[in-house]
């Protein structure tokens, strides 16, 4: 009989990772435990670990520690302190707690499901804040190091500025940069070395410390400390040993790479932001009904106190606190955060409603069914984080090559010294040549290759309304072949507006006989309504130059979810759903009945004197330039497809107008995510464009997520490219700029490595002393900068 062990999953925070090799080391160390599988994400600094019940969490923490890093275990708070999280509790339970294979969250003793679920926000906040917290001291380190390094480099490279004892002044400035400024590199190198690994941090630390140590020897024991000493611009290492210092090399390398680290850190700040913006949609308090009949009363409580079965009240403009069923009241519910569609959905007793959606035009009493971490909002939040954690972040080329490049360089430096000594050269010259090899190989250009191109590319993008998150987004933009386009808010305006007025004889247009009068009547009746359809009618009447505001309405009454009635100039009138007016006894002309059957838009019937006078159509319209944007995407080699939560007919109409052949209509947020994954499973590299919470999970899962301007924060924070220009043409601009930036990065990396390959043999042969090597290294950095600046014209 085989004993089956339950498989559990936990998300651990991982501190101390600096590059792709760190990710690999953590995964390998955890993978050595029996039955354990780990997926580590450098950007979010998290590890999702699946492990058998026979393995303890302490074993996982110890494995991470053995790899040289720190593991942070999520701890379920007690129900008492979960209240500190307010309305944010409930989202993200399963992904941050320890979960069994389908058995749900394993809670700490005494912790309720609501309390345990609040771990999600606490951990998400920690994940989001870790990048920012780490960035501030890193930025301080960079600024101070730069201020100290600039005079050191300038004086060393311009002999006329080398005053008496300038070398000791340079030492005073360079020492803090090498020791304190370079501490992150030295520490990482020591940790990696202790665990038998060599990375770029190793090369940076070894090269800078060697150059610094050699300079100290030359100052205190050689001739470099003498008054009147100047740098000699001579090639080769066969001069008098001990006469040169290389402080500008040591300080310059540290400062340049600190700049690269700061720019890289900025892209990591966004980790967890998607979850936080989703969590902020949930209300913090809810009005719960207590008692029955005449004793029924409202009690305002914090969201954590809400339980399945509770009745709660939602008033106009408020967000619904939990998934449930309407038991009393009628209203319109704005579900755009889920469906992306601007038209509110009319609800009545028996209708299911979703947490975080907004009520308009009436009050509702809702029976809670799913609360906290079980709501649909919580499920979408989990989908977003799952997609982010599982996304394969492209590694920088320098990190991928470091496993081979670093040990080769160190080996060459050691071999250089040995060969020089073996051929009878003085030890000082042998060490000088070895130092030149390390200095020439120090990855200044490599460190600048990615961040400098990103700095210029993102600056150019900001001018064009395009926000690029970092090198991972650029890598993914390079090879996408399929682009999924959300309809509402992306290719269409996302706002309800007046599209047509049809009068009783079938004529269409505001200017037709009776068309303007019908619009005036509808605007007068709808003036007091805050429903989006009513606002569209009023705005449309104003735009037509109507004088409806002089029309007087008496006996006004709003019928939640149906329409409005009143008396205009002594004549009863109504505006609302066509079926509502028919129920009131208004006769529907045949031409209007036919128009209603054929229309894809939201219809408002306007009736007076017992007859429907006109049908007003309100809907979303295609954005200006959307067709041209789709054509440009095709020209970039992308296959466009429309993905929308809207119905099939309006989706097909928009697709036809834009020349898009592939349409997915009536798709839920989960369905959009499934389409992304299905396309990826077929071997396609997928870009997703959206603007709402309903797009967030698909944006995060796509190879390239693009958030449209004017969209929600959840969509923007789940994306790789965010557009502040609220126009379709920005989509093609973003992909084009991203690809140009990626090409520049690859060019920078190629020339940086080519420079190393060409220069290292010269240094090993003694043709370059460390000072010349440092100047050459600086030139390679200048080349990278100039090449990157070409993006300003992209």
Characteristics:
794 residues; alpha+beta; seven-stranded mixed β-sheet; 48% helix
Question: What topology emerges from the helices and strands here?
Answer:
Blueprint: E1 7-15, H1 20-31, E2 37-41, E3 46-52, H2 57-66, E4 70-72, H3 79-82, H4 93-96, E5 98-100, E6 104-106, H5 113-117, H6 119-157, H7 166-181, H8 183-194, H9 200-220, H10 247-268, H11 273-279, E7 285-290, E8 297-302, E9 311-314, E10 323-328, E11 331-334, H12 336-339, E12 345-347, E13 352-353, E14 358-360, E15 364-370, H13 376-390, H14 397-422, H15 427-441, H16 444-463, E16 466-468, H17 471-477, E17 482-486, H18 487-491, E18 497-503, H19 515-526, H20 532-543, E19 553-559, E20 563-568, E21 571-576, H21 578-583, H22 590-598, E22 602-608, E23 611-619, H23 626-635, E24 639-643, H24 648-658, E25 662-664, H25 669-681, E26 686-690, H26 696-701, E27 704-707, H27 713-717, E28 721-723, H28 729-764, H29 770-789
Parallel strand pairs: 17-24, 17-26, 24-25, 26-27, 27-28
Antiparallel strand pairs: 1-3, 1-4, 1-5, 2-3, 5-6, 7-8, 7-9, 9-15, 10-13, 10-15, 11-12, 11-14, 16-28, 18-23, 19-20, 20-21, 21-22, 22-23
Helix pairs in contact: 6-7, 6-10, 6-11, 7-9, 7-10, 8-9, 9-10, 9-15, 10-16, 11-13, 14-15, 14-28, 15-28, 15-29, 16-28, 16-29, 17-28, 19-20, 23-28, 28-29
């Amino acid at each position: 009989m085989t004993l089956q062990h339950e498989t559990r999953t936990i998300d651990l925070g991982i501190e101390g990772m600096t590059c792709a090799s760190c990710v690999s080391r953590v995964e390998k160390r955890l993978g050595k435990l029996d039955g354990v599988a780990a997926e580590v994400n450098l950007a979010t600094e998290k590890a999702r670990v699946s492990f058998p019940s026979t393995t303890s969490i302490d074993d996982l923490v110890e494995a991470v520690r053995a790899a040289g890093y720190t593991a942070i275990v999520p701890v379920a708070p007690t129900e008492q302190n979960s209240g500190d999280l307010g309305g944010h509790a409930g989202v993200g339970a399963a992904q941050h707690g320890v979960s069994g294979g389908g058995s749900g969250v394993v809670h700490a003793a005494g912790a309720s499901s609501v309390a345990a679920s609040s771990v999600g926000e606490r951990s998400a906040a920690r994940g989001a804040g870790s990048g920012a917290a780490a960035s501030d001291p890193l930025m301080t380190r960079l600024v101070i190091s730069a201020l100290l390094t600039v005079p050191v480099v300038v004086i060393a490279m311009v002999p006329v500025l080398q005053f008496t004892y300038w070398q000791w002044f340079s030492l005073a400035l360079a020492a803090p940069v090498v020791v304190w400024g370079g501490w992150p590199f030295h520490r990482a190198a020591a940790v990696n070395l202790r665990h038998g690994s060599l990375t770029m941090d190793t090369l940076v630390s070894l090269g800078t410390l060697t150059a610094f140590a050699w300079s100290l020897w030359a100052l205190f024991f050689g001739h470099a400390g003498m008054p009147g000493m100047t740098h000699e611009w001579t090639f080769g290492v066969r001069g008098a040993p001990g006469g040169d210092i290389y402080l500008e090399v040591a300080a310059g390398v540290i400062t340049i790479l600190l700049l690269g680290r700061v720019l890289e850190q900025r892209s990591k700040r966004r980790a967890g932001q998607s979850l936080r913006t989703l969590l902020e949609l949930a209300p913090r308090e809810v009005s719960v009904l207590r008692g029955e009949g005449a004793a029924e009363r409202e009690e305002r409580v914090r969201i954590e106190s809400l339980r399945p079965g509770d009745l709660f009240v939602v008033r106009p403009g408020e967000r619904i606190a939990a998934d449930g069923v309407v038991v009393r009241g009628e209203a319109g519910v704005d579900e755009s955060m889920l469906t992306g569609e601007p038209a509110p959905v009319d609800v009545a007793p028996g209708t299911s409603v979703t947490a975080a959606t907004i009520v308009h035009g009436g009050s509702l009493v809702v029976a809670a069914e799913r609360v906290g971490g079980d709501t649909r909002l919580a499920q979408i939040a989990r989908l977003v984080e799952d997609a982010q954690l599982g996304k394969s972040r492209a590694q920088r080329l320098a990190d991928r090559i470091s496993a081979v490049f670093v040990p080769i360089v160190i080996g060459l430096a050691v071999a250089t010294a040995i060969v020089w000594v073996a051929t009878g050269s003085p030890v000082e010259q042998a060490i000088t040549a070895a130092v030149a090899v390390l200095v020439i190989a120090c990855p200044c250009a490599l460190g600048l290759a990615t961040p400098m191109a990103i700095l210029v590319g993102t600056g150019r993008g900001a001018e064009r309304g395009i926000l690029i998150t970092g090198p991972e987004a650029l890598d993914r933009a390079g090879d996408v072949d399929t682009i999924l386009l959300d309809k509402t808010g992306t290719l269409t305006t996302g706002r309800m507006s007046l599209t047509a007025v049809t009068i009783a004889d079938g004529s269409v247009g505001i200017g037709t006989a009776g068309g303007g009068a019908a619009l005036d009547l509808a605007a007068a009746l709808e003036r007091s309504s805050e429903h989006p359809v009513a606002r569209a009618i009023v705005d449309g009447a104003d735009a037509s130059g109507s004088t409806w505001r002089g029309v007087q309405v008496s006996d006004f009454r709003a019928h939640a979810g149906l329409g409005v009635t009143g008396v205009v100039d002594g004549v009863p009138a109504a505006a609302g759903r066509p079926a509502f007016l028919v129920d009131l006894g208004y006769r529907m002309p045949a031409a209007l009945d036919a128009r209603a059957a054929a229309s894809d838009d939201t219809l408002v019937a306007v009736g007076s004197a017992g007859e429907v006078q006109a049908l007003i159509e309100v809907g979303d319209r295609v954005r200006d330039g959307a067709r041209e944007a789709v054509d440009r995407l095709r020209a970039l080699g992308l296959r466009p497809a429309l993905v929308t939560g809207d119905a099939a007919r309006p989706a097909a109409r928009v697709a036809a107008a834009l020349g898009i052949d592939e349409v997915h209509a009536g798709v839920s947020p989960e369905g959009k995510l499934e389409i992304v994954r299905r396309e990826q499973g077929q071997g396609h590299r997928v870009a997703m464009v959206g603007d709402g919470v309903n797009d967030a999970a698909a944006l995060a899962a796509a190879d390239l997520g693009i958030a449209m301007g004017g969209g929600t924060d959840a969509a923007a924070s789940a994306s790789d490219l965010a557009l502040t220009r609220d126009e379709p043409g920005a989509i093609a601009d973003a992909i084009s700029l991203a690809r140009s930036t990626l090409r520049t990065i690859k060019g920078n990396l190629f020339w940086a490595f080519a420079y190393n390959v060409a220069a290292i043999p010269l240094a090993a042969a003694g043709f370059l002393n460390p000072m010349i090597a440092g100047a050459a290294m600086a030139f390679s950095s200048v080349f990278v900068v100039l090449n990157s600046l070409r993006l300003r014209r992209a």
